[in-house]
Amino acid sequence: MKQYLDLLRHVRDHGVDKSDRTGTGTRAVFGYQMRFDLADGFPVLTTKKLHLKSIIHELLWFLAGDTNIGYLQQNGVSIWNEWATADGELGPVYGAQWRSWTGADGRVVDQISDVLAEIRRNPDSRRLVVSAWNPSLLPDPSLSPVANAEAGRQALPPCHCLFQFYVADGKLSCQLYQRSGDIFLGVPFNIASYALLTVMMAQVCGLQPGEFVHTLGDAHLYSNHFEQADLQLSRTPGPLPQLRLNPDVTDLFAFRFEDIELLDYAPAAHIKAPVAI
Ligand SMILES: Nc1nc(=O)c2c([nH]1)NC[C@@H]1CN(c3ccc(C(=O)N[C@@H](CCC(=O)O)C(=O)O)cc3)CN21
Ligand SMILES: O=c1ccn([C@H]2C[C@H](O)[C@@H](COP(=O)(O)O)O2)c(=O)[nH]1
């Protein structure tokens, strides 16, 4: 994962020190792009063990249109706990926008089903876009994430806010625009999650996986992740593992956890880092 290590090194060595909402402090750059050819293997970090179970369950949870952390907790995934209400609600976050975007006229749009149908019908389309950014549901900045979720607004504004698909030479590519990226904790999850989504979408559309293009807005390293970043940069990357999906699945929404398997993942040890809330 040279692309990721280059990003980490670039921000560490050339970023600007900047204060942030959480009060932690960051080093940041604005505007950065990475490209991952999915034929080279599955883009997951080998210089730090990633909790793939969290990544897979989170993506299945988004695709199910769910916004309550109950499913995640039942499956041992705790990454959204800090932002949820006592009832597990996060407000209308990713799952709601992907599967049931509600327009001003009350019409409910399933953006994922629509984009799937359009990839199959008109793969040359330049409109294969899914947006989680819904200005009418953004949190009130004067309230905490939990207070926003309690008021029916999003606990946090979407970080991975817009993605687009592209078909050429029988291959499906995906580009993500992520407005804000926690390089040490969030970004490795985001890369693996969108790469997995692209491979799943390709399979159900009868296409080969192409590239995942990751475009970041504010790409930041939190100041309490500097030592962990140095440790990670001292490690040598290993070969990428291979993703294996159950080939019998032809409906995107029918994938189960057991249908998704990573072969030959042999990462270096996990590196613990505190999450900024
Ligand atoms: N500061 C911050 N960074 C994020 O990446 C982030 C947020 N906030 N808020 C909302 C979601 C939640 N996401 C998270 C939250 C925590 C981890 C995390 O602690 N990861 C650890 C443990 C993994 C696990 O328990 O599965 C890691 O080492 O990767 C990762 C992504 C991504 N998002
Ligand atoms: O998928 C995700 C979700 C969140 N993040 C990070 C990016 C920021 O560090 C925080 C969100 O804070 P904002 O002040 O709303 O930008 O969470 C991520 O990297 N990936």
TrEMBL record:
A Pfam cross-reference name: Thymidylat_synt
Pathway this chain belongs to: Pyrimidine metabolism; dTTP biosynthesis
GO BP terms: methylation
Enzyme Commission no: 2.1.1.45
Catalytic activity: dUMP + (6R)-5,10-methylene-5,6,7,8-tetrahydrofolate = 7,8-dihydrofolate + dTMP
Record GO terms (molecular function): thymidylate synthase activity
Domain Thymidylate synthase/dCMP hydroxymethylase: start-end pairs: 2-277
Record SUPFAM superfamilies: Thymidylate synthase/dCMP hydroxymethylase (SSF55831)
Binding sites annotated in the UniProt record for (6R)-5,10-methylene-5,6,7,8-tetrahydrofolate: 51, 182, 276
Binding positions for dUMP per the UniProt entry: 21, 126-127, 179-182, 190, 220-222
Residues annotated as the enzyme's active site: 159
Assembly: Homodimer.
NCBIfam families: PRK01827.1-3, PRK01827.1-5, thym_sym
UniProt record similarity statement: Belongs to the thymidylate synthase family. Bacterial-type ThyA subfamily.
Summary of the function given for this chain in its UniProt record: Catalyzes the reductive methylation of 2'-deoxyuridine-5'-monophosphate (dUMP) to 2'-deoxythymidine-5'-monophosphate (dTMP) while utilizing 5,10-methylenetetrahydrofolate (mTHF) as the methyl donor and reductant in the reaction, yielding dihydrofolate (DHF) as a by-product. This enzymatic reaction provides an intracellular de novo source of dTMP, an essential precursor for DNA biosynthesis.
Protein name: Thymidylate synthase
